[in-house]
Amino acid sequence: MQLGDWFWLIVAIAVCAAMLWGAKRIEPHWSAKDGSAFTCRYQTVGRAGEAIGNWNEGRVEVIGATVLIHPKDILRRRPPTPPLRVISASDNPPKRRAVYLLDGDALGLIALRVPSRSPANARLAGLVTQR
């Protein structure tokens, strides 16, 4: 191989690595204009505050003062969660994100992560004050 071939091989590897890094950081999100339905990431949280499992993607419906999560699963269809109440918002969320804590009696606590500029953020913030 010549020097020019090595250069283009390294450039191709660097471009692929940058694309993988960018894909890992992107969080796809959709929201209805009123925030009544949206997609987000959620994670089960233990009563002591420890994370249980990974962040999963789901579709959320806000019905009255409760939230239903429809898990997105490629291989099988899972039923939605029972109605969950929004009990608090994070004081120190990640950059450009809002994190809300949901309480489902049988499921325990669930953390819900949405972009801070989403209409869903305003809708969920309104549910926190309705306790």
What string gives the helices and strands in order?
Answer: HEEEEEEH
The count of helical stretches stands at 2
Largest sheet descriptor: 6 strands, antiparallel, barrel
Count every beta strand, where a strand is a DSSP E run of 2 or more residues: 6
Strand order of the largest sheet: 1-2-3-4-5-6
* Mean pLDDT over all positions: 87
Provide the structure class. Answer: alpha+beta
The 3D shape can be described as: elongated
**Helix percent band:** 25-40%
Distance between the termini: 68 Å
Low-confidence stretches: none
Strand fraction band? 35-45%
**Any idea what the radius of gyration is?**
19 Å
How would you describe this protein?
The chain is of the alpha+beta class and 131 residues long. It is elongated and about 70 Å long. Strands 1-2-3-4-5-6 form a 6-stranded antiparallel barrel. It is built from 2 helices and 6 strands, in the order αββββββα. The mean pLDDT is 87. Helices cover 25% and strands 38% of the residues.
Question: What's the short story on this structure?
Answer:
The chain is α+β, with helices and mostly antiparallel strands. It has two helices and six strands; from the N terminus they run αββββββα.
Fill in the keyword field for this structure:
6-stranded antiparallel β-barrel, elongated, single chain, 131 residues, alpha+beta, 38% strand
How is the secondary structure organized here?
Elements: H1 3-25, E1 37-45, E2 51-63, E3 66-71, E4 84-89, E5 97-104, E6 108-115, H2 119-128
Antiparallel strand pairs: 1-2, 1-6, 2-3, 3-4, 4-5, 5-6
